[in-house]
Structure prediction request, 521 residues.
Amino acid sequence: MSLRSDLESGKFVITAEIGPGKGTDVTEIAEVAELLRGRVTAANVTDQQSSVMRLGSLATCHLLVDHHLEPVLQMTCRDRNRIALQSDLLSAWVLGVHNVLALTGDLPHLGDHKDAIGVYDLDSVQLLSVISRLNEGYDMMGNELQGKPDFFAGAVVNPGADTEASFDLQLFKMEKKIKAGAKFFQTQAVYEPDKFARFMKRVEGFGVPVLAGVIPLKSVGMARYMNKNVSGVFVPEETIQRLAAAEDKTRAGIDLCAELIRDLKDLCQGVHIMPIGWEKRVPEILDKAGL
Amino acid sequence: MLRSKQKPFEEILRYLEGENRVFILGCDGCAQASGTGGPVQVAEMKSKLEAEGKTVTGTDVVPFLCEKALIKSRLARKAKAVMSADSILVLTCGVGIQAVAASVNKLCHPGCDTQNLGGSRGEWPGSERCAECAECVLELTGGICPLTACTKHLLSGQCGGASKGKCELSPDRDCGWELIYHRLKALGRLDKLSYLAPPKSWAKMAPDPAIMSSPEYALEMPAVKEASGE
Prediction:
């Protein structure tokens, strides 16, 4: 079982996200890896998520390989130029990291080093082209590689774009990402299965597996914060009210997430759980969802 | 002043593929001084395009193409020639091309690349900004620069950070790619969004040494050499 073989054989695939912490303490990563192994096909490791400086994605992915949990290296274009991006890709391959998710990356301004320059030497579509080129045995300048990788590359799409222009732009970009070599997609967090079903209808012709992103709600405040500040994420008021009415918010958050996964299950080829601090509760969510 | 250089003629012809009628617009300011878009170069471009079988519906050289009020008043006099063209070829800097694209509901092709001056910038009255990237990409974007309109200078389209048409940097800032989308939609050219843009050559943004070899620069050199102990 691997992410590539499972997706290619049309299996329903579960992935989860791990966010490394700030510092060198990797105890929790080891614990989470043990808990997730066997429950998810692969685990994404975020790359300086929200532009907050942390332990790197590549090193963390390598730790996951040691724990026999298949990693997906998230790679943003924010912090590295094309030389570093290509070099880190080669490094990832020799460290046993075989999946990569190409992203643009949030602006540095959103994080904890607001004065940093955002590199964006390449963008996500161009990065996918570069990965395809490395897989063919060449760097982006056409120089031959001594030994080549064989990455399984993926990308992201935002199905909840909130203007007509943005929705169209997302579809145009998704098609370009496929042309550039994306073999699977993981989406921004989804909370409305009906809307997501309409999105899937639009992209089914693309013929590339889509894993619906889900974020378990930990509190009413978190839901409201995301509605206000996170692009493409919309938690319906009804869901917020159900959480507000619950005595045990943790229980309710897990139940709501499991219910959502059950609703999304038949619409796409997998789910991608982004637990944001609730990594250890992923097995519980999956139990509840019957997966 | 912004310095420009005409794009290779073959590239301009590629932009005009499938179009027969073109209006040529030059600028009597910086582009005239750069020798890229003054009356002489506009006339030359007219004959070259006609030799390629294109119909030039008209030409004009506006004193400053970075001034949108001026563009509109000048082109109003030639409205028929402008509107009967398939597109406008603009021979000037990135600011001027964008200012024309913002003023006329017509596809505008960039005829020049704007050269980097290594720090000093011109001054103009509008909101258009040119990064002086020496590799103008306005052809892909309906005449709105993705390097300056998008805070991540993305060439392939909108990122996931836009919300309600605004940039993730601030709700006061428009998402550049949504502006590009609306412009291309109005022009009936959303097909341009499918183009896979190659990575940019940032190396071209290094200023040409020739720019720094002005007479003033030559006068400075002995003093610099003396100071560095050569």
Observations:
- The radius of gyration of chain A is 18 Å.
- The first strand of chain A starts at residue 13 and ends at 18.
- The first helix of chain A runs from residue 3 to 8.
